[in-house]
Amino acid sequence: MLKYYVLPLTHLTMYTMNERISIQTLSKHWIKKNKIADQIWCHRNTVRNIEKEDSVKEKVNRDKCKHPLDQFKDFIQDKLDKNLLMTRIIEDLITEKWYITWYDSLRKYVKTRKLKWNNKACIVLNTWPWQESQVDFWYAWLTPDNTGKLRKSWVFVMTLSFSRKAFQITVYDQKTETFIWCHIKAFEYFLWVPAVVKIDNLKAAIITASKFEPEYNKEYLAFSKYYWFDIYPCKVRAPQEKGKVESWVKYVKNSFFKWRTWKNNNDKWEFKNKDDLDYRLFQWQEKICNKRKHGTTKQVPDAVFESQEKSKLKQLPKKAWGVCIYIRRKVSTTCHVTVESNYYSVPYKQIWNNVDVKIWENIVNIHDIKTDEIIAVHNRIKDTQWQYCTNNSHYPDYKRIDLQTEYQFTQWSKMKDIWDDAYKYFLRLVKDSPRTWSSVIKWILYLKKTYKNDVINLACKRASVFEVFWYKVIENICREWLYKEELQIYANTEDIKNTKNNSNKDNNIINRSYNDLVRPLSYYNTQILFSNFWIFLIQCWMLFF
Asked: Which of 199, 326, 359, 541 could form a disulfide with 219 if both were Cys (CB 3.0 to 4.6 A apart)?
């Protein structure tokens, strides 16, 4: 038969040190065990067992457990003082101390050991009423455009540092022309221009970020000079330098856009289209955003702007800025650059060089990147793609195909120096072959190294009579001395046309000259038979003798 043992409650209850001391103290004063048990709420056997204990051990203050990273505590603190990231500290531990740890372990160690981290002092940047405005872009997720299509959206925010009055508008990209357009809208909203615009290092404004000499986008730099404000880029990864607009972005994000760019329970978007979004954002900006009491200044931004800041800002220029696009392109071997899927010619000396292209409404200007001089101007091609806008003067002389070039003039003068027939041959060749004449003339002039001008002139005369405009023909005439034949037979082409209507005698001469050049196939057959007959006689003679 199984027996069940029930442990008394005293064995399952843990008593604190204070309770044990109380039991021993009461027993020393000769108080009964039952009364002590009633006061402590325990069993009398428990009181008896505690009385038998020699002495109650007081609480021992134990040292904290040693962490494996304690041996590198000073090393980690030194890295934290340098404001290094956790990942960098882990990398330095591996490379310098040969110790491997994990990110979570290091983070918990820094937190439990209360190591000092990011303990650099910060100052409050106070500004004058006319001095500064801060600009920022932030991603607002997906919003519907006017066609109902969901598109990635960004919100442009400009905040005046003194009054904290702000302007915001939604856009679909962060291009330079969009960035400038947002500035213009903000200045028109304020009706004034601040002295300094503080920005971060986005590519629309800063091409190459640098602590000392940043490279500005030329279009944005020209825009700042036109509106008379200075550009102040923040340091890389230092958003606290423009904390006013950063905190304003957080306010707009949480107060207006939160839970409005996602679908609600009815599967309908909070904003119908972009016009509806811009209208509601502007109404919220005018009625709530700039009318509330600011959490830092404890003043209304609109009231501070009207009373203290508005009169001290710069006025807008009389004429609005004409938005243009600055882009950088590399010139190809075709002496063209690609702009908006069209091709514009550039002087051939710029091949494989980078050039700056300024796109206006109707004109495209191409600038040298070193001297900033205009090297090409073209009419802007609109509404079409893959079209060529070419200025033939941008090609080298030997590549030009038009008839009114300096290269043609130089070749014409060289042919005229040979003699009249060569000059006439050149004019006829240019007229008949406007695209291939340069290579033929080039090789004819090369013959001057081997033959005299008189020989080349007669060869051109003979070729022009037969209307043959090939370089090989003229070379054969010079090499075979065919130019020494009777010149009476070979008249100029214009003389041939005139003589055809004048006399039958001249016609016979001309016909004879053409017949000498063009022969029937029977002539070659008889020649072959005659040569074969003589070969047969020679072979017979060799067999018998």
From this structure: 326
